[in-house]
Amino acid sequence: MGYRKAPDNHNKLIVDEETAWIIKRIFEYANAGMGSHKIASSLRKEQVPCPSWWQYTRGEKDYSQRFSDPTNKYEWSHTVIRGIIGNPVYLGHTIMCKHETVFKVGLLKKTPDADRIRVDNTHEPLVSQEIFDNANAKILSRKREDTSGNVSIFSGLIKCGTCGKAMSQRYWGRDRHRIFVCNTYAKNTQRCTDHRIFYDDLYDAVLADIQYHAQLAYEDRDKAVALAIRMNDKAEGSRAKSSEGKLKQARKRYDEVTRMFDRLYEDSLSGRISNDNFTRLVDKYQAEQAQLLEQIDALERAMQEVRDTRQNAVQWADLMAEYAGIQELTAENLNLLVERIEVFDRAATDDGVEQTIRICYRFGGYIGERCFKVKAMKHGGHRRKGVDNEKALLVS
């Protein structure tokens, strides 16, 4: 789907304008954080024809029995969605030797990925490498959290602030509170701490942070851009000036060495310098030129990073401004706005229990930290309540 064989060369794929938009829509949905089940459901509601229907109407496959029921025209399967999102054909690559024939039986079986042959850039891609990788990463990160098939809106986003590993949703206590716990701690309590956080506390903190920055970007775009730049790299301004000065010096020295080369060649021709000295100086200047070119390249990359950071800050502010007044978090808007959420350990204080999260925004990066009050966890094994009970849990 998305391609057809070229009429003049059946070994070449060309873009199928009738179905290519469907493939792009699927990748857009996956990049927005939708899982394969939800994408399939959305395509059904939008009444987008499924791949087998296109094959049937074009006479490529006989699905007359299936489509005797007209509603099957829009019957998308989540397995088909997963197959599309993971297929490198949409990057413009061709995969060969995907199947092999079982000897004497005549059946086909899939070959392992390692035994397949991939030929790159054989036809026009429908999605970029970035979109493809991001869609697959989000699909792989979505795991069913309970027997009801519910998926957390934070799936794939929430990480332990200490070890960096993912945090998974659990149900805790007699009341089955939804919490997140560090996966490293869950496997080995000696390697990390639990970093547990109530789902409701996390939801409220993330929503509050997004609301604040979205309103800031809406009311004062320049202030939001400046904040993103400052918070991502407080030393960026001085680093940019330093790189710019060093770049000018390196380019100036490179020009000087080039002119010295020219004079050296003239001196050699006129006999004012011996062949031995000529060879020695040529080697010296060539080595310095090579070193200067590497330095210039590194400094230019550093300058470009500064420009990219500023451009990303503008993109972040524009994106956040679109969500001014946001009242609800969903998997879709979270994955559009946020790249990761880091959760740090709970801390018991005289005023209650506090916890810190750090959000890495898409384009904006880390825009500070948010420390907030959280519910104290009560444990059946302790009679103490409130903060005293929380302190007991923290040291247990």
Annotation keywords:
396 residues; alpha+beta; 3 domains; five-stranded mixed beta sheet; three-stranded antiparallel beta sheet; 12 helices
Radius of gyration: 29 Å
Give the uncertain stretches in residue-range form. 102-107, 144-149, 380-396
Helix share of residues? 40-55%
Number of E-type strands: 14
Q: What is the residue-mean pLDDT, rounded to a whole number?
A: 79
Count of structural domains: 3
Order of helices and strands: EEHHHHEEEEHEEEHEHHHHHEEEEH
Description of the molecule:
With 396 residues, the protein is α+β, with helices and mostly antiparallel strands. The protein has twelve helices and 14 strands. The protein has three domains: 3-90 and 126-141, no CATH class; 158-229 and 324-395, no CATH class; 233-302. It is extended, with a radius of gyration of 29 Å. Mean pLDDT is 79; it is low at 102-107, 144-149 and 380-396. Strands 7, 11, 12, 13 and 14 form a five-stranded mixed β-sheet that branches. A three-stranded antiparallel β-sheet has the order 8-9-10. A two-stranded antiparallel sheet has the order 1-2.
